Amino acid sequence: MKRLLVIGDGQLGLMLAEAASRIGLILDRVSPEQSLLFHGTGRHGIALPHDWSAADYEIITAEREHLPANALMARLAEHPGFGVRSAITTLADRRSQKALLDRLGVATSEWCVVESQEDIERHSRVHGGTVVVKAAQGGYDGRGQWRLDATRAGAAPAELYGRMIAERSVRFVRELSLVGARKADGSCVFYPLVENRHREGMLSFTLAPAGGARDYQPRAEQMLRCIMDELDYVGVMAVELFEEDGTLLVNELAPRVHNSGHWSQDGATTDQFELHLRALCGLPMPAPGSVGHTVMINLVGCEFDPAWLSLPTAKLHWYGKEFRGGRKLGHINLQAPTRQALLTQLASMAPLLDRDHAVVVEEASARLRLAQAESEPAQA
Ligand code: ATP
Ligand code: MG
Question: How far apart are CA 274 and CA 20, in angstroms?
Fold first, then answer.
């Protein structure tokens, strides 16, 4: 039985542990900051025993790309089973990530390193108006980002000069993402493209599969395959995309399981967590298909409500994290054979949610109705 270690003690690691236990793998998690070990799906970490050795694990993976520089990480970095470490290092910094995309000729928004206020002003002048300034490292859920125009260029934090990038603000029609997996032998599989909606930089819902995106699928797969090949990557990787003027631009890459793949837990033949483990362990990895239509709704900054469980088709994934406003605390997947049936489910779900989440359900329903209308042949 293979033994795996996940770096990180968040919900992604927990869901990897759940998937591992289903398919007979042993998976523990370690908090790299606190040196706490979590066995399997256990919620309580124990201090790393003195005789603990990472050599007891064959494979090391990570649930996040931002890893601390400390003694424990230095030990883990030398582990021969932590092969994806260099890919994580490249992608954890927006400067090297964007440079990789440019080098591979994978379309992404025009960008520059921000060394000074003038760089933001110039980027704004050249690319027209607002630019999105992002910290090179450490940002997530829209944190560490500033939307600025030339007149407000001075509002970016000067202490990050040299460690920020500026991107053209993309006027996208919608955001899509693709999750795929690659094995050590180079074989790859992909989920269908999904549509994502963000609120204040944080994912609020995913529709799987995305409506009318079939024509984009080969191009998106080609982009992600090319990146994974270049990095000799093994495991699941996600690419966030902007659809702009009939083309795809890469927003960013995540060398791990991804929030926009959570729908697969209840709407695909194999979920992204199991797929990641299969890829890492060299297990059979048939292409994962979507089963009908799925909506994933993130539960952000709300208390657990047992009422959610009164809808028989709602699959709740609650992370058991401490409540904090604006924090992702769980998600709900709704899955149905048709978009129409999914709309009915969403209508039943809305009254069980607070105002903010009911609005998200309304937005998701509107997108689904649009996808449904577009997929129906025009009436003569
Ligand atoms: P994640 O939670 O995915 O890790 P993040 O904090 O790393 O997010 P991004 O994905 O770069 O940040 O940006 C968050 C959101 O902000 C995007 O999903 C998109 O809605 C918007 N955004 C980011 N960059 C741009 C851009 N260049 N043009 C327009 N919108 C953008
Ligand atoms: Mg993102």
Answer: 7
